[in-house]
Write a structure and sequence with these properties.
alpha+beta; six-stranded mixed β-sheet; 4 helices; 29% helix; globular
């Protein structure tokens, strides 16, 4: 289904599938066609990478980098467990292994990510982690 015709839940499902597969072409196409110019993502501020990133261009760069399987840090083995919701809000339940910079020991974690849409365009993604302490603590190298 082309991105322009995908309903929000399908778009979220397809997006996580592309992230997990390191399909940067689909990630770029989706951000360019379905993210509002001022779209944002917000991670818990307690995390080293926490805070808010705004702007579709910046988000495109963040998501493309996240999909890089050779990245020395970040979420690895991403899996979408479920996506629920219709209309302007969709919640994604994801699992992943978090790898801190300089560490060789990933930490299993999960998150709920709330996607907000307006007129079919992604406006905001807010991440809620199961255990933000586990992925902010130093990990053995």
């Amino acid at each position: 289904m082309p991105e322009a015709a995908a309903n929000p839940r399908q778009l979220v499902t397809d997006f996580y599938t592309a992230l997990a597969a390191a399909d940067t072409e689909t990630i770029v196409r989706t951000v360019e066609s379905r993210f509002a110019e001022n779209a944002a993502i917000e991670w818990p501020p307690s995390l080293p990478h926490g805070g808010r990133v705004e702007g579709a261009r910046r988000l495109r760069a963040v998501f493309v980098a996240s999909a890089n399987p050779d990245s020395p840090a970040g979420a690895k083995n991403l899996r979408l467990v479920s996506a629920i919701g219709e209309g302007d809000e969709v919640v994604a339940w994801i699992t992943f292994d978090w790898l801190q910079p300089g560490s060789a020991a990933p930490v299993a974690n999960q998150a709920l990510e709330l996607w907000r849409f307006s007129d079919g365009m992604v406006q905001e993604i807010r991440a809620f982690y199961w255990d933000s302490d586990a992925i902010s603590a130093p990990q053995p190298a």
